[in-house]
Design goal:
Chain B is mainly α. Chain B has helices spanning 8-24, 31-49, 51-55, 94-117, 122-141, 145-154, 156-166, 171-207, 217-226, 233-250, 259-266, 269-294, 296-322, 327-346, 351-382, 393-396, 398-412, 418-432, 438-463, 480-498, 501-524, and strands at residues 73-81, 86-92. Helices cover 74% and strands 3% of the residues of chain B. Chain B has a two-stranded antiparallel ribbon. Chain D has helices at residues 15-34, 41-58, 77-104, 111-127, 131-149, 156-187, 192-200, 209-227, 235-242, 245-270, 275-298, 303-323, 329-355, 371-374, 376-390, 396-410, 414-440, 453-471, 474-483; strands spanning 66-68, 73-75. The chains are: A mainly alpha, B mainly alpha, C mainly alpha, D mainly alpha, E mainly alpha.
């Protein structure tokens, strides 16, 4: 069993190594990469089955490979574990991952660097698996940064494009800000618990910190006038880390730009898996978060605000992928908000369903892009439903799931979150989230209308359906998006039970009224979106403004720019830092610090010139100086002899 | 004598010098032969030095009790200057072990890098490299303060020539600045050595008449710890300061860093590699070996202030690096930032901090050397170091780009690669240190963010985007030699990243003993 | 008898005048004369002290000093003559090309 | 009247001195009568022979301690070691002059005997234990050097230098004599031992402190002038620059060495009990000297003049040892430093000579440009000397500086050691400048300098010595140490 | 009596010295210095050192001063100080220093204790040139020899410094 779980991350890693060092041909690369990830999926399934065979309380396998860091009291093993939470994450990663790998074979066909692409993809899966399988924060961080790296590589895959390289660097650096907080959180954890392990190895050894959260109950740090709870400090730092990775306010700005990468990448990394890392982290560190009421409030508010903010931004985008990107941010906001409200199972549930249907949407969008010869601007699309029927159908399924229409997967998970918000009294959060869900339906309706209905607005290309290697994954995912909700439908709540050993949560009650209202609202808004944009199709011009712009004006503009946050950062933080760096480098360092050093040199030079000036060449001056010396020597000696 | 029965350390120490001597007899025109002799020597030194970690006792029999001198291994001792009690004594412990290995490891790499970059007076270049190698090894190996100082100062001479003769346009200015700055920085250390010697002699002579004094590091330490020799607070602080200044200039700690960018920018690639790879480590090593060990109380006293400088250096170096358009300058300032981490770790004064600092020195040696080699590869092809001159090379030189990315990420502290382990251990140490605490760390972590910013800026400017300059369109990718170089460097970069315990294990005992002593100082006074 | 201190006082005055001569006069020959005056002043003091102690050695010393002074003057004047041949001056300020 | 009773004279105790002085006198005659113009090199060889013989004659005297001429001369290992150093300096100076003189058109046979006379003056200074002997020794040395300084006839600067040297030297001699008078007035004797005994009698009430101190101060000033301690150093740069280069080389070590040897005797045999008065003064002068010498050198672009200033600075470093010669390490540091300085500095001057051509000098820094490409070995040797003078390991200069600083610290002058290291950091600047010119700039198109045998010998000996002593100083230290066991007492 | 003679001589000596210092003609200076030397030789007589009196007159006043005068005449260097002083700033400074030096030397010189003036046999011995001569050849034999060499060196020096001009 221990060996088996090691296989899960290792299989894709082997794929990575093969693709880097051995494989040179496109065909082999795709097959090997997809095959190994699929194999990992199978292994994961086996592992899950074995896990299910164990008694619920013992469903955790921990395996240590070697001591990673051991210096002083600071010991971190290179250890992974497998428990129910990890299991569902791993299933999502390997499952959706395998499909996306297969899809990529078609999508990336003909790209000169496709081998490298699959290598990156494999590496990503490896790192993502490490992220979810790590048994300590440091190894989690390894995966965390590792997926960040792969994200960087894949966003920048078409590095020739300026936007791609800029987006890649931006993604990495913005993530780094969150990571810095993550590092601090790790240090704090280590300082207060003496270990970074989540759980003990189950053999009577040291317990992990998640099992010992009570140790820090009531502990406070900080200045006397403003002490904060240690649990708050740690969880808040983790929260900042999560906002980076999961693209939450205020660090969400990198994700829309990240769409510069190949679309399957957007599907895998920037929708289904990597960006959910933050949510996973919160779920994993649930005892810490729960221990801090303050942080939980922050988490909920950040999630809800992000959800609304990104939802509004998604409404006003023209780029097919940017809509989905903001939608992803928005949905992640849902999950985060759920975590903040204590609905961890709901968060994970939504994570899973969202992983499936958002991957579907992205892949379908990719199929659209593929079929329209790299067109991404929805103003140049329209009427594609006939040219690409499979894509259209799967896309609609994905859209319905995202919008939260019964019985698609998104409905169940979203509803669970909303129900939790109501039932636990988080009314403001509920309002925000509900509003967002309405917006979601609206912009998905808008998108479907813009892309698939009406007439093709840009006749310069001939749309065609994608090859089977791409459509088959779409169909598979569409099935998943349709029935995926089943894993935690209110009556069965399999997922809740499954996660119970980790998240200790009982199934919530199904709120029929809410479900009805939400579905009705979503259906209505979705239709509204579809209707507005099909009926106004004629007003949409390539490069033109949105019909809604007429009514909302600058507000629409603000939505299109995601309320100018990106630009705000650019103009304050980035420019400020650049100016400061420039000042330090061009003025302060050469003239200040080095100037001081050179000043010392000049000082001695000046003294030297003084000595030189005294050396007049006149022997009488020399005698004069001599006499001065005589007087000094005599004077001092006589002074002493007084 | 030692666990091997033959003077391994002397062999390692003097073999490069012997190679230099042999090169003297090679005709100046026979360029290829000089290079080969030099390479063979360096490789031989490295292979021989491999015996050190192999035969190193990670947990020596002698248990480190508080008050005992540091346990040295492979010890050699010969009388050298009996009149002042200075001896030719060599030894390694867990702290110097890896630095010695770093030095011998970088030796062949440096020589390999000269193949394409140095065409002027090749033989003498190699001679200087070999001599420099001996000098640097001497600093790490010497267990006698006078011997140490001798090697310490001597490193200046070959390096100055390397910069001054083979450097680029502004080389004279840089060479002069390098020499004078570092020389001036270390003169006070000479005085401190003398003071220590005399104070110690006077103290011991009071007990043992006829004692003529010593420069033996081990004896100083054991007498200090056994209380036979004590320093009053002011003296200790002054001596500490004198030593520290020398090391701080070398490291270089902000604000003593301004010689570094000049030296790096002007030095030939091999020179930069040695400078960044090993020479800067002399400072960090000196702080651990001498400042902390000899003056524990003063170290405690000064640690917070020095850590402030270190933290300033981390941020400042990173910010200034970010603003550079010259690749070498960028990497040079990144050294300021990275070495700031090292100093921060050292003055955390705990096991994590110090062992992290040692490992980080090794890491920095590997990563930054590789970065300079990377700049060198580009410079040989295009003869410019301006970022604006490049772009899109990922397409043109994919292998090179891959290695560069690896190196940049290692330098930026990506987990799984070497840089992260060092940095993280250091800040873990600093966080836990009662002298420093989270404020220091919170700022230092900013350096991690900025490191990603400037290194990716570098990477992006060179490798990403389209090939804008026609001159870049047909640049050849790495040749066999360069490939070997980068491959060799990548191995430890990855190995340290995923299995640092191997390296920590060696230094554990020494660092623990040192820290125990520091702690005893706190308890005692 | 005249007290020794009177002689010493006189000698000090003469010595100072000699020093002033070196400091003030530009004529090399006069400078040499001033040096001679200094030596003489010293001799005077020496003899005065010798008389006080009745130490004959001091007289011997004076003898040596006079001899050495003569030798020095000889060399100095020879040098002056040599310089004068090219420079045509005995002004000590004129020989000031070496400086800085 | 009574027959004169000449006190017993033990000539063996002054054998080296005797050999040098006799040989010089005879050589003078031989030169005039037997050696034709144009072959004056032969005189040089003979002079070298004489110095070598003098050195050999001294060998059996190793370890002998004794006085002669009624206690006016003293032979002890201290004096003997210094004698050897002086002989070495003489030999090296003559070696580098052999070709220099004809190339400058100033070859005259008298040059070599004069150098020998100067050496004899230095030996006299090392051996003398009576103020009057010291005075005469200084005058012997000085008058010889006045002549030698003015030796480069067609060059006006040579005569100018001689004139300046003479005027100031005579001025200083005036103070010396006045000092002797005052000391005699106080102590009633010129013997160092008796002065010491008198000075030690303080407390008995008959000590005439003011008189003694005043006299001692004036004598010290005269020595300080010879050693070129600031502010009595003003003559040094001009005189070094003006005089023929071998003479400058000789002076830079010789004069200093002789005067310092005498100073050690004076301070530690005559005035040890008064150290509380003279030590601060001398320490102040030393500090000033190190500062002024090294600062002055910074501004120079003329290497010869730079070396002159540097010699002032080095006088300060030697003084570190001299002042604490009462301690074990003082005289050791002094002699060791002197020896090392002699090697390095003479070597540097030899390189300077190698660059000079017929009738012209090549002392500008620019003349050193690219020397490495023209004459690699010469450049390397010069670099060694420069590093040694700057005190950078592993050259002998470092060891010497290290030892001098140690001695100073031990002697209770840590602040002076501090000044020493700080000024040596300043000094690195101008030594490095020469090195940079030689190695890192392009040659200015000058033809390769001509190296002759004598110079080569000089440079090679000096370079090897500098490196060897730097790496393995123990034997030399041991020698110096053993030679000094006897000093301090008596 | 002695005291009066001393004062007269002292005044003459100082006058001679000062006059030497201030007179602008080198010949005058030499003559004034001669006056001073003569006065000092009288002092030697007063100090019961007749031998030195003779030496002073013959060597100094006779030989050296003649040498001075001779060179002055030979070179025609009586008046070299007509040109303006290039370092005139130094004059007041020099005078100041001279004053200070005088004060200091007086302080030093008068620091000496005064023992009662000696008389009798011992004084006679002191003033006897024979005892001086005896000392010269016994105790002071070495300095005496060295003085000889110094003179030799001086002679060689003079020759060396002046013969080559003719040669070249």
């Amino acid at each position: 069993m221990e060996l088996l779980i090691w296989l899960i991350p290792l299989l894709p890693f082997i794929g990575f190594l093969l693709n880097v060092f051995v494989i040179r041909r496109e065909r082999e690369a795709g097959l090997v990469a997809s095959g190994l990830v699929a194999a990992a999926f199978v292994v994961t399934l086996i592992a899950v089955a074995m896990l299910a065979g164990m008694p619920p309380e013992e469903r955790r396998i921990v395996s240590t490979a070697w001591e990673w860091i051991n210096t002083g009291s600071f010991r971190v093993p290179f250890a992974i574990m497998f428990d129910p939470l990890t299991a569902v994450m791993a299933l999502l990663i390997t499952g959706v991952g395998a499909l996306i790998h297969v899809y990529s074979i078609g999508y990336m066909h003909g790209d000169p660097r496709v081998v490298r692409y699959f290598a990156y993809l494999n590496l990503f899966v490896t790192m993502m698996l490490f992220l979810v399988m790590a048994n300590n924060l440091l190894l989690l961080f390894l995966g965390w940064e590792g997926v960040g790296l792969c994200s960087f590589l894949l966003i920048g895959f078409w590095f020739e494009r300026k936007s791609a390289s800029a987006a890649a660097v931006k993604a990495f650096v913005v993530n780094r800000i969150g990571d810095a907080a993550f590092i601090l959180a790790m240090l704090a954890v280590f300082a207060y618990f003496g270990t970074l392990n989540f759980y003990g190895d189950g053999e009577g050894g040291q317990l992990g910190f998640l099992e010992r959260v009570s140790d820090i109950a009531g502990l406070r740090i900080g200045p006397d006038w403003q002490p904060i709870f240690v649990s708050t400090a740690i969880s808040f730092l983790l929260l900042i880390g999560a906002t980076g990775k999961s693209a939450q306010f205020p660090l969400f700005v990198w994700l829309p730009d990240a769409m510069a990468g190949p679309t399957p990448v957007s599907a895998l990394i920037h929708a289904a898996t990597m960006v959910t890392g933050g949510v996973y982290l919160m779920a994993r560190a649930e005892p810490l978060f729960v221990a801090s009421f303050t942080t939980q409030g922050w988490v909920a508010w950040i999630g809800a605000l992000t959800a609304l903010l990104a939802g509004t931004a998604a409404m006003a985008q023209w780029d097919i992928k940017r809509v989905l990107a903001y939608s992803t941010v928005s949905q992640l906001g849902f999950m985060v908000a759920a975590c903040g409200m204590g609905a961890y199972v709901a968060a994970i549930f939504h994570l899973l369903t969202h992983g499936i249907f958002k991957a579907l949407l992205f892949l379908a969008a990719g199929s659209v892009i593929h079929g329209t010869h790299d067109t991404q601007d929805m103003r140049r699309m329209g009427g594609l439903k006939d040219a690409m029927p499979t894509t259209f159908r799967t896309y609609v399924i994905g859209a319905l799931a995202l919008a939260g229409i019964v019985p698609f997967a998104g409905f169940w998970s979203k509803d669970e979150i909303l129900a939790h918000a109501i039932s636990h009294g988080h009314t403001p959060i509920f309002v925000l989230l509900f509003l967002t869900s309405l917006l979601t339906a609206f912009y998905m309706g808008r998108q479907v209308a813009l892309v698939f209905f009406g007439t093709q607005r840009d006749p310069s290309y001939h749309p065609h359906e994608s090859p089977q290697v791409m459509t088959v994954p779409l169909v598979v995912l569409a099935v998943g998006a349709t029935i995926g909700g089943a894993i935690n439908v209110p009556a069965l709540h399999w997922l809740t039970d499954w996660l119970e050993p980790v998240l200790h949560e009982k199934a919530g009650e199904f709120n029929l009224w809410l479900a009805l209202i939400a579905t009705a609202g979503a259906g209505g808004m979705g239709y509204l979106g579809w209707w507005v944009y099909t009926s106004n199709a004629a007003k949409i011009k390539i490069g033109g403004k949105d019909p809604a712009y007429r009514y909302s004006g600058d507000i629409w503009k603000g939505m299109e720019e995601a309320w100018y946050f990106d630009r705000l950062y650019q103009r304050t933080v980035v420019v400020g830092f650049e100016r400061l760096a420039d000042f330090l480098a061009r003025v302060f360092d050469p003239q200040g610090v080095d100037g001081l050093v050179m000043g010392v040199g000049r000082f001695f030079g000046g003294l030297a010139n003084g000595v030189r000036a005294l050396q007049t060449g006149y022997v009488r001056t020399y005698a004069l100086v001599f006499t001065v010396g005589v007087l000094i020597v005599l004077g001092v000696m006589l002074w002493f002899a007084r | 004598m030692n666990q091997l029965g033959f003077p391994l350390l002397s062999l390692v120490l003097w073999l490069p010098a012997a190679g230099a001597l042999a090169l003297l007899f090679v005709p100046r025109a026979n360029v290829e032969l000089s290079r080969r002799i030099s390479l063979v020597t360096m490789v031989a030194v490295f292979l021989i030095s491999l015996l050190l970690p192999l035969r190193f006792e990670t947990n020596p029999m002698q248990i480190a009790v508080v008050g005992a001198p540091p346990v040295m291994q492979f010890v050699e001792e010969l009388p050298w200057l009996p009149i002042v009690g200075a001896t030719y004594s060599l030894g390694v412990d867990g702290i110097s072990l890896w630095l010695v290995m770093l030095t011998t490891f970088l030796g062949p790499i440096v020589v390999l890098s000269t193949w394409d970059s140095v065409h002027k007076d090749v033989r003498n270049f190699q001679i200087l490299l070999l001599i420099l190698q001996t000098a640097m090894l001497g600093v790490f190996l010497a267990q006698d303060l006078l011997l140490f100082y001798l090697f310490w100062e001597f490193t200046l001479i070959p390096m100055t020539f390397l910069i001054g003769i083979w450097g680029s346009q502004n080389r004279i200015y840089a060479a002069r600045k390098f020499f004078l700055y570092t020389f001036a920085g270390s003169v006070l250390m000479l005085l401190a050595l003398i003071a220590l010697h005399i104070l110690h002699r006077d103290a011991i002579a009071a007990v043992e008449p006829g004692f003529r004094g010593t420069f033996s590091f081990g004896q100083f330490v054991s007498d200090l710890r056994s209380g036979r020799f004590t320093l009053d607070t002011l003296t200790e602080r002054l001596l500490f300061g004198a030593f520290f200044l020398a090391f701080a200039v070398k490291v270089p700690l902000w604000p003593f860093h301004t010689w570094l960018p000049d030296a790096h920018v002007e030095a030939p690639t091999a020179g930069s590699v040695v400078l960044a790879g090993v020479l800067l480590k002399l400072g960090g090593y000196g702080m651990i070996r001498y400042n902390l060990t000899l003056f524990p109380a003063a170290s405690q006293w000064a640690a917070p202030a020095l850590a402030v400088l270190a933290v300033i250096g981390i941020i400042y170096g990173a910010a200034v690096a970010f603003a550079q358009s010259d690749m070498k300058k960028l990497v040079a300032y990144s050294s300021v930032s990275h070495m700031g981490f090292v100093v921060l770790g050292i003055f955390a004064l705990n096991t994590e901090g110090i062992s992290g600092a040692v490992l980080q020195m090794v890491n920095h040696g590997l990563s930054t050397s590789a970065l300079f080699l990377m700049v060198g590869v580009l410079y040989e092809r295009r003869h410019t170091r301006e970022l604006a001159e490049y772009g899109g090379l990922w397409k043109v030189m994919p292998v090179f780009a891959a290695f560069s990315l690896l190196v940049a990420l290692s330098s930026a502290g990506l987990p799984g690669l070497n840089g992260f382990v060092g940095e993280f251990t250091i800040i873990a140490g600093a966080f836990r240190s009662p002298l420093l605490g989270w404020v220091y760390v919170a700022i230092a972590v900013g350096g991690v963010v900025l490191a990603a910013a400037y290194l990716l800026k570098l990477f992006r400017a060179v490798f990403m985007g389209d090939v804008s300059q026609p001159a870049n369109a047909n640049l050849p990718d790495l040749n066999q030699r360069e490939l070997t170089t980068f491959t060799l460097l990548s191995i430890p970069i990855v190995v340290i990243g995923i299995y640092p315990a191997l390296f920590f294990a060696g230094m554990q005992h020494s660092v623990a003993a040192l820290v125990a002593e520091l702690m005893a100082q706190v308890a005692g006074g | 008898m005249v007290p020794t201190s009177y002689y010493v006082l006189l000698s000090a005055i003469l010595f100072t005048i000699g020093v002033l001569g070196v400091l003030l006069r530009r004529n090399v020959i006069v400078v040499f004369m001033s040096v001679e005056l200094m030596l003489n002043a010293a001799n005077l003091a020496l003899v005065a002290f010798a008389r006080e102690r009745l130490a004959v050695e001091a007289q011997v010393l004076v003898f040596f000093v006079i001899t050495v002074a003569a030798a020095e003057v000889a060399v100095g004047l020879a040098l002056l003559v040599s310089i004068f041949r090219t420079k045509r001056t005995a002004d000590v300020d004129e020989v000031s090309t070496l400086k800085g | 009247m009574d027959s004169l009773m000449i006190p017993p004279v033990d000539l063996t105790l002054m054998a080296p001195l005797l050999v040098v002085i006799t040989w010089a006198t005879v050589l003078l005659l031989v030169d005039v009568f037997f050696i034709p113009d144009g072959r004056k090199k032969l005189t040089g060889y003979l002079a070298i022979g004489g110095l070598v013989v003098a050195g050999l004659v001294g060998l059996p005297l190793w370890g002998v301690t004794g006085t002669t001429f009624d206690g006016m001369l003293r032979l002890d290992p201290f004096a003997l070691t210094l004698t050897w150093v002086f002989l070495l300096v003489g030999i090296l100076s003559i070696t580098m002059s052999l070709e220099y003189l004809p190339s400058q058109g100033i070859e005259q046979g008298e040059f070599y005997p004069l150098i020998m006379f100067a050496v004899s003056g230095m030996i006299l200074l090392a051996q003398g234990t009576d103020l009057i002997v010291l005075f005469l020794g200084i005058e012997t040395l000085s008058i010889t050097l006045y002549v030698l300084t003015g030796f480069a006839y067609p060059r006006l600067t040579s005569e100018e230098a001689a004139m300046k040297y003479l005027v100031l030297g005579a001025f200083a001699a005036g103070f010396f004599v006045y000092g002797i008078a005052l000391v005699f007035g106080a102590a009633g004797s010129t013997r160092l031992a008796e002065i010491g005994a008198y000075a030690a009698s303080r407390g008995l009430g008959d000590l005439n402190l003011t008189l003694l101190l005043g006299g001692a101060a004036m004598v010290l000033i005269a020595f300080a002038f010879k050693v070129a301690l600031a502010p009595f150093h003003m003559w040094t740069p001009d005189v070094y620059e003006g005089s023929p280069t071998p003479v400058a080389a000789f002076m830079s070590v010789g004069t200093k060495g002789g005067a310092l040897a005498a100073l050690v005797r004076l301070l530690f045999e005559g005035l040890p009990t008064l150290s509380e008065y003279w030590l601060p003064v001398l320490a102040g002068l030393t500090a000033l000297t190190m500062v002024v010498g090294n600062l002055g050198a910074i501004a120079q672009t003329n290497v010869k003049r730079m070396l002159a200033y540097s010699s002032i600075g080095h006088a300060g470093y030697v003084m570190l040892g001299v002042m604490v010669a009462g301690e074990q390490r003082g005289p050791e540091a002094f002699i060791f430093y002197l020896l090392v300085y002699a090697l390095s500095n003479l070597g540097a001057f030899a390189v300077l000579i190698a660059l000079e051509h017929q009738g012209e000098n090549a002392w500008r820094l620019d003349d050193f440009a690219g020397l490495y490409q023209r004459q690699p070995m010469l450049a390397v040797a010069m670099a060694i000397f420069m590093f040694s003078l700057a005190g950078v390991p592993p050259t002998a200069g470092f060891m010497a500086k290290f030892y001098a600083l140690t001695a100073a610290w031990e002697g209770g002058l840590p602040w002076l050691a501090l000044v020493g290291v700080l000024t040596s950091a300043v000094a690195a600047f101008f030594y490095l400048r020469v090195i940079i010119r030689m190695f890192m700039t392009e040659p200015a198109g000058e033809p390769a300098p001509a190296l002759n045998r004598g110079l080569t010998v000089d440079i090679v000996v000096a370079a090897i010595g500098t490196i060897a002593i730097g790496l393995i100083p123990a034997p030399v230290f041991a020698l110096v140490e053993r030679s000094l066991v006897a000093l301090g007492g008596s | 009596m002695d005291l009066i003679l001393f004062f007269i001589t002292a005044v003459i000596a100082i006058t001679g010295a000062v006059a030497m210092l201030v007179s602008r003609n080198a010949v005058h200076s030499a003559l004034f210095l001669l006056l001073n030397f003569t006065a000092i030789s009288v002092m030697y007589l007063l100090l019961s050192a007749p031998f030195l009196f003779a030496i002073q007159l013959t060597v100094y006043a006779g030989a050296i001063m003649v040498l001075f005068l001779f060179v002055v005449m030979l070179l025609g260097a009586e008046k070299v100080e007509d040109a303006p002083d290039r370092i005139a700033w130094q004059q007041p400074l020099a005078l100041l220093l001279g004053l200070a030096l005088l004060v200091v030397s007086v302080v030093v010189g008068l620091g000496g204790a005064t023992t009662p003036p000696p008389v009798g046999e011992a004084l006679a011995q002191f003033s006897d040139p024979r005892s001086l001569g005896a000392l010269l050849f016994t105790e002071y034999l070495l300095p005496f020899e060295v003085t000889g060499f110094i003179l030799l060196i001086a002679v060689i020096g003079v020759v060396v410094l002046n013969q080559r001009g003719r040669k070249i």
